[in-house]
Design a protein that fits this description.
three-stranded antiparallel β-sheet, elongated
Length: 126
């Protein structure tokens, strides 16, 4: 009788495999849709930090800052980012602060969307 219990254990059923494959495909689909937005954010963040390190940054007007950032992002194939809406500047005596805030809506399936929110704070002491 001990051997008959072992012969019934044959592994995962077909419905179990279907569920595992569906979960893997679903996670892959979500990753393929969301990861590019995080990579774009890293490029945007890096370009803003690079701009802050520019020695002439302090003398730039807001328009010049937006134009330089737009050109840098265009070189990195990021064309849908509007820095005029996403960046807030404040120049005070002794420091310049910038706040980056934007959201990206990514449709997943049917009427289900994911909203990614990105926020960064930058400060350059003069």
């Amino acid at each position: 009788m001990g051997g008959s219990g072992l012969s019934r254990q044959r592994g995962m059923s077909a419905s179990g495999w279907f569920l595992v494959i569906a979960l893997i495909l679903g996670a892959t689909s979500v990753g393929v849709r969301l990861v590019p937005h995080y990579l774009d954010h890293e490029i945007i963040d890096g370009q803003i930090r690079s701009l802050l390190e520019n020695p002439g940054f302090v003398d730039m007007s807001r328009g010049q800052i937006h134009d330089r950032l737009k050109a840098a992002l265009k070189r990195n194939n990021i064309r849908e980012f509007d820095s005029r809406e996403a960046l807030e500047f404040e120049k005070r005596s002794g420091a310049v602060t910038m706040d980056l805030f934007y959201e990206v809506r990514e449709p997943l399936f049917w009427n289900v969307d994911v909203i990614l929110t990105f926020e960064e704070h930058y400060e350059k002491v003069l």
